[in-house]
Amino acid sequence: MRPQEVIEEPASEVAVHDVGVCIGTNCYIKGSWKLLQSLASELKQRGLSDHFRINARFCTGQCEGGPNNRHRQ
Prior knowledge:
The protein is of the alpha+beta class and 73 residues long. It has 2 helices and 3 strands; from the N terminus they run βααββ. The chain has helices at 25-29, 32-45, and strands spanning 17-22, 52-57, 69-72. Strands 2-1-3 form a 3-stranded mixed sheet, with helices on one face.
């Protein structure tokens, strides 16, 4: 009897999403820092931290509609 050959499969690549939250003055005043912290905390609680990179960003040029975020895959 021949020993069985072990075939290793490559680890599946996890899509990582970049999410930026503006922390410029106007967005900060409207709660963007709390949004940034809450989002990171929620993703960690749900075990999804490996799928997202949460970043603080500055001025997206859309201050009147803040807080602003940006998503990129």
